[in-house]
Each structure stands twice: as C-alpha cells, then as structure tokens.
Design brief:
The chain has a five-stranded parallel sheet, sandwiched between helices. α1 runs parallel beside α6 and α2 crosses α3. The protein is globular, with a radius of gyration of 18 Å. It is of the alpha/beta class and 162 residues long. The C terminus is likely disordered. The chain has a single domain, classed as 3-Layer(aba) Sandwich (Rossmann fold), CATH 3.40.50. α5 links the parallel β4 and β5. It contains six helices and five strands, in the order βαβααβαβαβα.
Length: 162
C-alpha cells in the first residue's frame, strides 16, 4: 500500500560531499514523495549571515554568535517540521552542529537516521543509540525511506529459509 503523505526530511551534517543530492536523486528515481531541507550548506553564507544582515562585529565571538543565532532559527524550525532527520558525519571535519541537530531531533521525538563510516562507530555511539537506524551508505538510507513510505521491501532475500 503506497502512502499519499509527503514526507519532510531534514538532511543535517557534513557539507563537503554531495550526499544530499545523491539521496534526493535516488528518491526521485523511486518516485518517493519527499521534500528535503537542510541547513545552509554554503559555508561562507552560513558563517557571515549575521554580520551581513545585522552589522559587522569587531570580536569574532560576536560575529559567530550573530550567524549561529540566525541559523538556529532556520534549522530548529526545519527540524520541528520534519518527519525524519538524516545526520551525516564525515571524516574530514567534526560536525558538532550535526550532533546538536540530532540532540534537538531526539528532544522533539523525531526519527533519526545516522549516516557514517564504520570508523566513527565508537565516537558516535551515543548518537547511534538515539537513532532509529544507523546507515553506512546513502543507498541504505534510501532503502529505509522507500520501506517507510511504501511499506514494502524492494527485494526479498533468496536465502530465507521457508
């Protein structure tokens, strides 16, 4: 049975690869009714939105504070309005903001799917414990989304004992 609901996803985390576009494209290929939102992934705009809108700051702390405050409005609103949060952790940088997004999502009782390499299992054990699923590939994320939306497995294993 196919759901008529349009699912709201919030794609949080690592901004240096195209994982968001991969998820969106794979979902489109499967005709999954989803809308993807995310934090601002243009690093300079995210960092400088506060001073560009509210005025320059001499102290870098207040420069960052203004931007973080404005971004928090966007991010918390999108998380609140989402059905599922996908949080991607990458190797290159530590995504403290993504961990914070996962905490907000957990506090709001949102479903969380983490996405990261096995190398980060130990570092992310608490976040993985709070998540409903922990994936190692975008393909796994999309298979979960397909199952949640359509209520059917895409393919059944041939090795299942009858």
């Amino acid at each position: 049975m196919t759901s008529k609901k349009v699912w709201q996803l919030y794609l949080s985390g690592e901004i240096h690869t195209n994982w968001r576009e991969e998820i969106e494209n794979m979902c489109k290929l499967k005709n999954l009714p989803i809308i993807c939102n995310s934090p601002n992934t243009i690093h300079e705009d995210s960092d400088d939105c506060g001073v560009n809108i509210l005025g320059q700051e001499q102290d870098k702390f207040w420069h960052d504070h203004k931007g973080a405050s404005i971004n928090a409005i966007r991010n918390s609103t999108l998380i609140k309005n989402s059905d599922i949060i996908v949080v991607k952790f990458g190797e290159q940088y530590r995504q403290w903001n993504a961990a914070f997004d996962a905490g907000i999502a957990k506090a709001l009782d949102k479903s969380i799917i983490t996405l990261h390499d096995d190398k980060l299992n130990h570092a992310l054990k608490e976040i993985n414990q709070a998540a409903s699923a922990s994936c190692r590939s975008v393909e796994q994320v999309v298979k979960i989304l397909s199952y949640l939306i359509n209520g059917e497995l895409e393919s059944k294993s041939l090795n299942v004992a009858e």
